[in-house]
Amino acid sequence: MSKQYNISVIPGDGTGPEVVEEGLKILNAVAEKSNFSLNFRHYNIGGDHYLKTGEILPDSVVESLAESDAIYIGAIGHPDVKPGILEKGLLLNLRALLDQYINLRPVKLYEGVDTPLKNKKPEDIDFVIVRENTEGLYAGAGGCLKRGTIDEVAVQESINTRKGVERCIRYAFEYCQKRNKEKKLTLCAKTNVLTYASDLWERTFYLVAKEYPDIETDYAHVDAICMWMVKNPEWFDVIVTDNMFGDIITDLAAMIQGGLGIAAGGNINPDGISMFEPIGGSAPKYTGKQVINPIAAILAAQMMFETLGEPQAASWIEQGVIKVLRDDLKDVAAGRMGYTTGEVGDLVKAYIEGL
Ligand code: IPM
Ligand code: MN
Question: 107 forms bridges with which residues in the sheet?
Fold first, then answer.
């Protein structure tokens, strides 16, 4: 019997279902050409489901997701739900429960895509950010005292464990080695101020580095990395950083590669179930309008195949995306592509079928 992958699909809120539909179109087209089959199971969780039932992430759903081979998610975020509820209750909870301790975000300027950086070309913008995905300020440690009074105190602590930091850094070294490009890994932290947390990161980084003598190491403070990413993005190959810094610098990075319409990410548990997503939000104002760019969701599908160990399938998807970005789309921004969301999916699909 041929190989079968069970993929959990969470279309989610806003424009999530529209872009997921295009992603599924591509996943199916690729499976047709491959020696494996895909079995999808849809989960109707997100803002609408929460408003109707009060349920965010039932245990039964988590158990069922944990039995699949990978998770494909559109977007979470609803205008009628207070910010933080779905983000924490669904997305961050899933990352933590499934121990997806890496957030992998490739930053690549494809030919035909405009970058806001003057004079920078595709060969200048091609790096990967490895963000720690379960600890730091996202661990939810802290509390408040006398809330709402003039004496109130709010504390939010960054949790950095030796184990959590080390496994993230080790993953980044391994990834950098496999990527086999500049073989350069940059640690992004703030050693001049975060003298406890960044100290642990720095010591662990140079300790693990000894096991990878072929990888060049570099360090940049997080504020400086924002500056260099704009001025000299060609300096970077792989960057490793903590959860909060990673959240911030990956939005900056998404902009220099052309915007959220084409930026994808993977929440990875190297020994478990990983979850792939376009990194843009649910864009409620565009819902149902067929104007949103599905390329980010399609590239998330590419990352999924890469992680499942199907490099040929991943490469077909990337070839399709490269072709459509270079030859077809007028712009990558929502509403300016020259095509509808569905038509962009069709273009990528037709190209892949002809490969
Ligand atoms: C991201 C998002 C999330 C994060 C939000 C929605 C909780 O910004 O995936 O980068 O902060 O990690
Ligand atoms: Mn973010």
Answer: 127
Q: What mean pLDDT, rounded, does the chain reach? A: 97
Cα 355 to averaged position of ligand 2 atoms, centre (Å): 35
Model pLDDT, residue 2: 81
Instruction: Assess whether pLDDT exceeds 80 at residue 110.
Output: yes
Pocket test for ligand 1, best of 57, 82, 87 (most atoms within 8 A of CB): 87
Please determine, for residue 1, whether its predicted confidence score (pLDDT) is greater than 70. Answer: no
Residue 256 has pLDDT above 90, yes or no: yes
Residue 211: count other Cβ atoms within 10 Å of its Cβ: 10
Task: For ligand 2, an ion, list residues with CB under 5 A.
Answer: 247
Q: Three-class SS of residue 53?
A: helix
Residue 3, strand partner residues: 36
Closest ligand, as measured to the CA of 90: 1
What is the atom index within ligand 1 of the atom nearest the CA of 88?
7
Residue with tokens 């997701």: 65
Strand order from edge to edge, sheet including 238-241 = 36-42, 3-12, 70-75, 274-278, 264-268, 102-108, 126-132, 238-241, 184-189, 216-221
7: left (phi over 0), alpha (psi -120 to 50) or beta: beta
CA geometry: angle at 191 spanning 186 and 196, to 5°? 120
* pTM > 0.70: yes
Structure tokens at 322: 């490269």
